[in-house]
């Protein structure tokens, strides 16, 4: 899920990784 708070808490590195996985999952579903 897209959550700005997670970005501030985990840092830009982990946030990009999680966002990438989330986007990949959304593409698969659609």
UniProtKB/TrEMBL annotation:
<dbReference type="GO" id="GO:0016787">
    <property type="term" value="F:hydrolase activity"/>
</dbReference>
<keyword id="KW-0378">Hydrolase</keyword>
<dbReference type="InterPro" id="IPR011051">
    <property type="entry name" value="RmlC_Cupin_sf"/>
</dbReference>
<dbReference type="InterPro" id="IPR014710">
    <property type="entry name" value="RmlC-like_jellyroll"/>
</dbReference>
<protein>
    <submittedName>
        <fullName>(S)-ureidoglycine aminohydrolase</fullName>
    </submittedName>
</protein>
